[in-house]
Amino acid sequence: MKNIFGLCFCLSVLALVGCGKDDETNTEINNPTTYNFTRDGQSTVSFPGQTTRIAMGTELINAMANFNQSAIGLLEMYANETATGEDANPYANDELNASSKSIKSKTAASTDFFSANTSESATIKADFETWITAQVTEVFPNKNELATPGFAGQIADGSSVRYVNAAGLEYNQVVNKGLIGALIVDQILNNYLSPTVLDAGENKTNNDAGIVDEGSVYTTMEHKWDEAYGYLFGASTDATNPIATLGEGNFLNKYLSRVNDDVDFAGIATDIWEAFKLGRAAIVAGDYDERNDQASIIKELISKAMAIRTVYYLQQGKNALPTSGDNYGSAFHDLSEGAGFVYSLRFLRNPNNADAYFSRSEVDAMMEQLTTGNGFWEITPATLDAMSEEIANKFDFTVAQAGS
Questions:
Q1: pTM listed for this prediction
Q2: Cα distance between residue 84 and residue 191, in whole Å
């Protein structure tokens, strides 16, 4: 497959450090053909917390379409911390009910973006709680009412029925796609792949000496990198070779697959996977420059994939807007997904500096354009085109490429 991104990867089984740079230490990197790393015959790859949170998120999104759910029950799926009585075990999976993990605790919780910005982190967490609650208080009571401008209810989308708020927004879609950014992408790009996290404390010294975590077979640095990997590929049938079944789950893996299926961006998923694999091999070899180079590639390409999918949904929503009549269902569904991806733009990471590609104020302005007043009922093609251009201009793709 042609690599259209022009990235330099060392793909041989025994790859010398370099990818075009001077190799002063002549460190040899053993880059395996799959994401399979062992020590003393045991796998050193572990990311149970990531698979748990992906499973929790999946149950939450599904439950938001269940009109028998209570707001307390849905909020407990998000926070997993305070409910009692019948709401204390909200998940169908008893292992999730027994877990101490939660979605909320890792939402907008990265070291690089939010450790010193707790106010914004709290605001973002509250946004999700607001949307989850509003699904029950605004949408559920109007299940059998037809949605009209300013009034929540149901709306036809071909043979499907969508349930929207007064602005035409599906809360379950904005929560789903918003969590891809606020949970999945933020933890990958701004937490676990950050040198601040990877090199914390004695991590470098211990990794160089092969000192593993107590009761484990991996070093702390190896584990941190694997946790980033788990947020993308943790729900894969075979996480050692996830490209073979790309698209599993409801979060980043699924939508990376959609981008990868576009001929304009074919190969992007493999490029990300190869960077994860080579970066992990570089950690084993103690080559931290190579590790950082691969982390930068991942940050760039995941950010780009998210931006591509955002533009895609904005453009699909625009194209589905009716020129007459009231057939808004398809447009509102695409725009609801687009709104969730717009919200996720806040967490995209510029690999060349410490900044996000989009500031909170930029994202807030776009969300306001989508939801102010009667929202999708009044949105114009010109507004959606301008928003799409604003997003695409931060990257090296066009609206036409992403929108088709």
A1: 0.92
A2: 32
